[in-house]
Amino acid sequence: MKLGVRKTIKEIKDYGKYYLVQSLLASLVIGIALLISGMHHLVIVASIGSTAFIVFMTPQKRIARPKNIIGGHLIGFFSGAFCAFFVPPHSESVVMYALAVGISMFFMALTDTRHPPASGTALGIAISGFSWDVFFCLLIGVVALSLAHVLFRNVIKDFSQ
What is the full DSSP assignment across 65-112? Predict the structure, then answer.
């Protein structure tokens, strides 16, 4: 299947139902995770949304595996928290924010838990600071998406080509 900006009528006819169903499933899982966790922490919501895209549009990719999703986001969270520790209150440190991303990438590569949205988690936590509340909201979101990956992996189509 050729992916691009322009879709032929045949491609839309062949894959349109998958696009719709998988997008709705992603919305459902994210909605449930947000309701359960009360995830009102905007600092991590964007990275969770990116993870949902990966899980529901490229489920066969290594970065969509539960090990990578959960491990990557945990590494991202703690990398960001570590760097936030060195930023004085009521100040900004672009160096530490950038370093949070680099540290998360290094440890994800080292532990074979690469998951690109998790570097967004690192950046968000470095900027906003450590919070157990954010940690548990993140954990609920990534576990819900990992569970969805396992439950739906034989049903959803991979669009990574």
Answer: SHHHHHHHHHHHHHHHHHHHHTSPTT---HHHHHHHHHHHHHHHHHHT
